[in-house]
Amino acid sequence: MICARSSLLAPILLESFPDSKCRWLDNYRAIGVHCEQQLGRNGLLGEAMNLFHEIKSYVGFDDDDARRLRALHPVVEAYFGRIVENFYDRLQDHPRARGVFSGPDQIKRLRQTLYEWLDGVFSGPYDQEYFKNRRRIGRVHVDVGLLPQFMFGAMSLIRNQFAQVLVEEERQRVEEVLDGDGVAAAVISVERILDIELTIMVQSYWNELMRQKLQIPAALATGLAHEVRNPLNAIGLQMTLLERKLRTAQVDSGVYEPVLEAVHTELQRIQGLNSEILDFAKPVEVAPSTVNLKQLIEEVQRSHQLTLDAGGIRMEVNATGEVEMEGDKARLSQVFVNLMTNAVEAMPEGGTIRVEIEGRKEGVVVEFSDDGQGMPPALKYQIFDLFHTTKAGGTGIGLPIARKIVEAHGGTIDVMSRPGAGTTFTLYLPNTHL
Q1: How far apart are CA 113 and CA 87, in angstroms?
Q2: Which of 78, 98, 100, 203 has a CA 20 to 30 Å removed from the CA of 219?
């Protein structure tokens, strides 16, 4: 949780602590290395569709802010050197921060890095590429285990110095270059871009926390699944041999068949669960083709219409814009079947499932909503955890697998819900060649 976009301290730690990149975490990442690679290549595309747009909207960053920042660039550029000097003087004054430096040569390189960072704040462009670059920088901070207090302090220092330049030292020039917008508007635009930077960094830490929450139980479960697979197969084989011997001995089938049938049923259930766990640990192989998401969801609806009718549930599917994408039809169908099943189970008295599909320039957004029981806010951060379930017969694997499939397509999945007010799952699927 550190202030943003700071390639400035990331290289410091990379050079100072080359062997300290969380060895214990590498063990857990082994189970999710494919997902890590997918997120590194594609996953932030789906995140860019949602998160960057959401951040800019929330802080109110718009084209006027971008215009002001670019106009301010020649005004503030002359002060970048002073800000860099003050920044490193402050770090040198703090013993723990000072300890990350290896020597004068490293500090010289990092001064240039910070200068370039400051230049980028005022030059943009503030688009998806900007977000992806900052997202990668944020990931570096997570990997090196950077302490957040140093970066929060650095951001505060930078904010204060820019405010001093804009309000006190260059007030007249600011008013001139902004052509009537005024100093207050300049300060607000700078604050907004720095807030965006900070939010991106915090999100990087949050994403890592969510990955760890998933990978730790996944690693344990997969190890256990491997251990019990052979005993389960042996039990199945012995049950088959026992059945043959009983028949050969002409024992009354009415005595043993109900018992053996019950054992076989439970054994198949455990083997099925074991297979799901092992499948979850494997990389999701995507076989891309052109998929019309509206048609795909309507196919899922038709194939489960009897279930919907039996539950008194109506399903509405609406689409706007271009809703075709490159994806794995079977895998995506698995996601929508899972979401539909969850919606049906959330509405035991019947209700409506609403699916809204919106084609955007950067991809397709699917909102999958029900008007069922909803869930407490805290559950939002648990439902994608492996084995988490509130259902008596649930396994807690469906939603984690759904998320893994979405991420393998370079997308993201989010959920909004309130008790008694239904649940909405939102999928962001980018336009990208897999």
Answers
A1: 12
A2: 203
Is pLDDT at 311 greater than 60 in this prediction?
yes
DSSP string of 87-114?
HHHHHHHSHHHHTT---HHHHHHHHHHH
Pick the CATH number of 289-430 from 3.30.1540.20, 3.30.565.10, 3.90.550.10, 3.20.20.100: 3.30.565.10
Phi-psi region of 53 (alpha: psi -120 to 50; beta: other; left: phi over 0): alpha
Look up the CATH architecture of domain 10-217: Orthogonal Bundle (1.10)
User: Cα–Cα distance between 22 and 323 in angstroms, integer?
Assistant: 41
pTM of the model: 0.56
Q: How far apart are CA 367 and CA 347, in angstroms?
A: 17
* Percent of the chain at pLDDT exceeding 70: 75
- CA 155/CA 59 separation, integer angstroms: 17
Query: Which has more confidence, 278 or 85?
Result: 85
pLDDT bracket for residue 199 (50, 70, 90): confident
Strand partners, 82: none
Domain boundaries, the chain: 10-217, 224-281, 289-430
Q: Are strands 351-360 and 363-370 parallel, antiparallel or unpaired?
A: antiparallel
